[in-house]
């Protein structure tokens, strides 16, 4: 039986002392039925783990899932509450893992890459008993979901407008239903990169020997690799996490030779051409009102000590050995902007480098976890801390302190339900702030009072797991409650941690960057691709536009951002058509 079809076993907790006692009792005679079941479960677990360890496809993550089940940190799952069909799921947003983000990328831990994000309800829209709710997003894709597919209009083979109805006994006339044509969507397989071979006729003069060669079709150009090829390779590599050698193997299966070294040359040349657009993104991100930042570990294979020292940010120790990919997402007047930077710099140093370009005097809101390395140096910011990071410390000790953790998780759940209400109602930042002050402030005050009593009444040992969770939250309380004082302050860093999945996916599949230059090329493409995705723009179409109109991008990169490039593209294409 395949693993995917195996029924998940019922999990029971057996202290090792109890298991040892049962084994001892087997010497004196038959065991009671209940103890036989316990011993049988222990043996079954050992057999299952042994089978997994002997498999060539075993990973540590798979073994963890076998032993502990799939991890989830929703309040209902942690507290063992029963979820009903209409139960609110706002608590899914109180944790990056539950909301589709990675685990804290700063500590190097890694989650399976993905783009799923849990939607949340504040509990006010719970349907009446007996009423079923329709789950969105589970239908088939219609013709409108293929905006770039060519539309081919077909007429009826034997009938036309005005013809008599062919039905026996009917004297009516046929009329074309122009607004309601029948639609057939036909999906075909094509190679990510295809090749065309043009055989240009050549004529040679028999007297002088001059050779005359036919011209290629208009728009083909002389370069072997078109802009679309560079955009596709970059999207597969830096947007989808496919290493060069896998792309090579895929194209070989389609009879298109595309060596990994050639792919690198193509994207390296393309990166140099669209660097102005990347630089413009960084300048506009510096003016953001809210800046989210975090980092994750990365590896550069050929990274000499001299290159490392040269790449170190100002003030960093020369003996620093770590390599990181720092991610930054900025909320600007035009929408979100994502930036990546790989090297021996932390998230705070990357943020400081971006803020060096800031012209606005008002300090931005900065959202991150509680690590000191996320601070942007001497730059002034309104620091906010990620509530899910503080919440997770309670989740980790839920088994030892079930009642205390239940109070904290249920309190925080109300905060996120209020935030979801604000988002769903489209409240402005000041209106959202007022709503939180009315509904969330009493809950946060009750939580703060509860934490204070735990230490004041000596009901919690400060060095225990619960004590450490309380201390962490108290030490970051001002930053955790910034959303109660500043309009627009977020509750979590999920958007940045989701962005870092691009880097984590690359690390998981390609394992490393070969050189620092290769890392910079990857950062450039990841930034452009993910920013386009955040604006719901097709990254491939955007990259092609930047490459084909490189001269115009260099002259005015601000006109070629993901949120406005279509206007500049229309003007450039109309000028080309006129010429």
How is the topology of this model organized?
Blueprint: H1 16-25, H2 33-54, H3 60-68, H4 75-79, E1 202-204, E2 211-213, H5 227-239, H6 244-253, H7 260-273, H8 275-285, E3 290-297, H9 305-311, E4 324-332, E5 335-343, H10 347-355, E6 365-368, E7 382-385, H11 387-395, H12 402-424, H13 429-456, H14 465-475, H15 477-480, H16 494-499, H17 501-510, H18 516-534, H19 539-548, H20 550-555, H21 565-578
Parallel strand pairs: 3-6, 6-7
Antiparallel strand pairs: 1-2, 3-4, 4-5
Helix pairs in contact: 2-3, 5-7, 5-18, 5-19, 6-7, 8-18, 11-14, 12-13, 18-19
Structure description:
The chain has 579 residues and is α/β, with parallel strands linked by helices. It is built from 21 helices and 7 strands. Strand 4 and strand 5 form a beta hairpin. Helix 5 crosses helix 7 and helix 18 packs across helix 19. The N and C termini lie far apart (66 Å). The relative contact order is 0.12.
Offer a quick outline of the entry:
The protein is α/β, with parallel strands linked by helices. Helices cover 43% and strands 7% of the residues.
Question: Which features does this protein show?
Answer:
21 helices, single chain, two-stranded antiparallel ribbon, five-stranded mixed β-sheet, 579 residues, alpha/beta
């Amino acid at each position: 039986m395949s693993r995917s079809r195996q029924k998940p076993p019922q999990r029971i907790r057996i202290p090792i002392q109890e298991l040892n006692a049962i084994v001892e009792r087997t010497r004196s005679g038959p065991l009671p039925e209940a103890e036989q079941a316990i011993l049988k479960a222990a043996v079954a677990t050992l057999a299952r783990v042994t089978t997994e360890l002997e498999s060539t496809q075993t990973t540590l993550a798979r073994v963890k899932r076998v032993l502990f089940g799939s991890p989830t940190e929703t309040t209902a799952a942690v507290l063992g509450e029963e979820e009903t069909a209409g139960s609110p799921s706002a608590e899914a947003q109180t944790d990056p893992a539950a909301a589709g983000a990675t685990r804290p990328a700063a500590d190097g831990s890694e989650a399976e890459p993905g783009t799923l994000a849990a939607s949340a309800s504040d509990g006010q829209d719970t349907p009446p008993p007996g009423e079923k709710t329709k789950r969105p997003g589970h239908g088939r894709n219609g013709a409108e979901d293929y905006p770039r597919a060519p539309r081919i209009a077909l007429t009826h083979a034997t009938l036309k407008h005005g013809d008599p109805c062919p039905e026996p006994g009917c004297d009516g006339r046929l009329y074309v239903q122009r607004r309601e044509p029948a639609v057939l969507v036909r999906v075909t397989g094509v190679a990510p990169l295809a090749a065309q071979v043009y055989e240009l006729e050549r004529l040679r003069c028999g007297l002088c020997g001059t050779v005359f060669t036919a011209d290629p079709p208009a728009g083909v150009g002389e370069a072997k690799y078109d802009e679309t090829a560079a955009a596709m390779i970059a999207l597969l590599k830096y947007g989808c996490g496919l290493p060069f050698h896998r792309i090579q193997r895929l194209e070989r299966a389609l009879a298109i030779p595309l060596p990994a070294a050639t792919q690198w040359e193509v994207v390296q040349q393309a990166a140099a051409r669209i660097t102005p657009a990347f630089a413009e993104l960084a300048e506009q991100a510096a003016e953001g009102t809210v800046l989210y930042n975090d980092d994750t570990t990365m590896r550069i294979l050929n990274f000499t000590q001299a290159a490392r020292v040269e790449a170190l940010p100002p003030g960093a120790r020369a003996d620093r050995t770590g390599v990181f990919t720092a991610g930054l997402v900025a909320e600007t007047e035009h929408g979100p902007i994502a930036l990546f930077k790989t090297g021996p710099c932390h998230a705070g140093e990357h943020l400081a480098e971006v803020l060096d370009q800031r012209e606005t005097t008002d300090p931005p809101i900065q959202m991150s976890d509680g690590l000191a390395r996320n601070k942007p140096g001497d730059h002034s910011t309104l620091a906010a801390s990620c509530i899910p990071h503080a919440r997770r410390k309670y989740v980790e000790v839920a088994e030892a302190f079930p009642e205390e953790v239940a109070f904290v998780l249920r309190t925080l759940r109300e905060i996120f339900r209020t935030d979801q209400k604000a988002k769903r109602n489209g409240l402005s930042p000041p209106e959202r702030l007022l709503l939180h002050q009315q509904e969330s402030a009493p809950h946060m005050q009750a939580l703060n009072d509860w934490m204070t009593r735990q230490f004041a009444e000596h009901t919690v040992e400060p060095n225990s797991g619960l004590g450490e969770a309380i201390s962490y939250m108290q030490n970051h309380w001002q930053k955790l409650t910034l959303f109660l004082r500043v309009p627009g302050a977020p509750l979590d860093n999920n958007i940045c941690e989701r962005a870092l999945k691009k880097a984590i996916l690359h690390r998981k599949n390609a394992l490393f960057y070969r050189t620092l230059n290769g890392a910079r090329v990857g950062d450039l493409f990841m930034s452009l691709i993910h920013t386009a995705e955040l604006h719901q723009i097709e990254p491939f179409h955007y990259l092609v536009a930047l490459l084909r109109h490189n001269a115009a991008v260099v002259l005015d990169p601000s006109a070629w951002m993901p949120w406005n490039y279509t206007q500049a593209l229309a003007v450039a294409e109309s000028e080309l058509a006129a010429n």
